[in-house]
Amino acid sequence: MAIAATAIAISFVVEPLQPPAFAASEVVAVVNKTPITSSDVAKRVAFLKLQRRTGNLQKLAREELIDEALKREEIARVRMSVSTDDVDRSFERFAASNKLSVAQMSSILNQAGVGVDHFKAFIAVQMSWPRLINARYGSGKMSSEELVKRMMENKEKPVTTEYFLQQIIFVVPESRRNAILAKRKAEAEKSRSRFPGCDQSKEFAKTMLDVSVRNLGRVMQPELPEDWKPLIEKASANGTTGTRVTERGVEFLAICNQRQVSDDTAAEVVFRAEDLGKAKKEGENPNEAKYLEELRKKAQIVYP
Questions:
Q1: What is the DSSP string of 143-188?
Q2: What is the phi-psi region of residue 234: left when phi exceeds 0, alpha when psi lies from -120 to 50, beta otherwise?
Q3: Among 126, 160, 169, 226, which has the minimal tally of Cβ within 10 Å of its Cβ?
Q4: Tell me, what's the pLDDT at 133?
Q5: Higher-pLDDT residue of 197, 246
Q6: How far lies 68's CA from each of 71, 229, 241, in Å?
Q7: CA distance 70 to 149
Q8: Cβ neighbours of residue 110 under 8 Å, at least 6 residues apart?
Q9: For 84, how many CA atoms within 13 A lie in the half-sphere containing its CB?
Q10: Is 274 helix (H, G, I), strand (E, B) or coil?
Q11: What is the tens place of the pLDDT at every residue in 149-179?
Q12: What is the dihedral of CA 122, 123, 127, 133, to 10 degrees?
C-alpha cells in the first residue's frame, strides 16, 4: 500500500567517545558497482561502538554496509524510499527520546566519528526497507487448513476494525519543495475542514491545484502503516486524519467507512500480524532474511 512507512527502533549509549583517526580512504568492497570505503567502515565501527556491540567490528561493519547497499539499491529500484522530511523527523524523535536537542545529538554523533549524514542514511534504509517487505510478503495467504486450525486453537474468530480509506495528496514537486511546502501544508489543513466526503472527493479535488485522490480500499487495523496508524485511529468515522509531509507532498487520509468485522479475511490478517509480532520479538523477520538473501545471490559483490 502506497501509504506505508515505518519508524526506526534502535538505541545506543549517547556518551561521547574518542573520535577515530581516519587514514586515507580506500575501497574495501564494491556492491553492484557501488564502492564501500574504509572511511564508511570506520564510521559504522564508531556507530557500533555507540551501540556497545562487540566482536570483530571491522567485519561486522563492512557486512552491514554491504547489506545496506543492496537494500538501498532495491529501495531505489521500486521507488519506495521515505522522504528526507520523514528521516529528519525520525532523527528529531530519536534525539528527543534521549532527552537531547537535535544540535546536541548531532554533536555527539560527530564527536564519536559517526557523523549525522551517516546516521541519517542508516535511518533512511531502516525506515524504507520494511515497506518492501510488506509490499512483497504482506499479502501472503494462509492455507485454508492452517486458517481453520488457528481459529480452532483460538476458539473464536478474532475481531478487528475494517477501514475504507482515500488518500488525498497535495502534490509538491521536488524541485519546488523548499519554496512551496509550507503553503501546500496550509492548503491541505484548510481543505480538511471543507472535505465533503469520499463520494464527492474527486470533484472536490478538481477545485484545487495539483491535488490527487487515490482509493486505498479496504484496510484492516493490523495492516495500518505505523506512521499513519495513530492518525487513522484518532480520526472519526467519515472524517479525515491530520496531515503528513511525505515524499509526494502533503497528504491526509479520509475515513470513508469503518466497522468491526470478524470474517475469515479479518481472522487471517490478525493471525499474520500476531505471527509477525512474534517473529520480531524472537529476532529478524524471516521474510527480511529471505529477501536479502535473494538480493545477495543476484548481486555482484567484490572484495578488492
A1: PHHHHHHHHHHHSS---EEEEEEEEEEEE--GGGHHHHHHHHHHHH
A2: alpha
A3: 226
A4: 84
A5: 197
A6: 5, 27, 33
A7: 38
A8: 19, 116
A9: 5
A10: helix
A11: 777 777 777 888 889 999 999 999 988 888 9
A12: 20
Nearest to 58 by CA among 72, 40, 34: 40
d(CA 193, CA 128): 31
Residue positions counted in the chain:
304
Pairwise CA distance, residues 26 & 11, whole Å = 30
Mean pLDDT computed over 88-112: 89
Q: What is the DSSP letter of 21?
A: P
Residue 122, CA distances (Å) to 1, 128, 193, 293 in order: 23, 10, 38, 20
> Does pTM surpass 0.85?
no
Q: From the centroid of its chain, how far is CA 40? A: 23
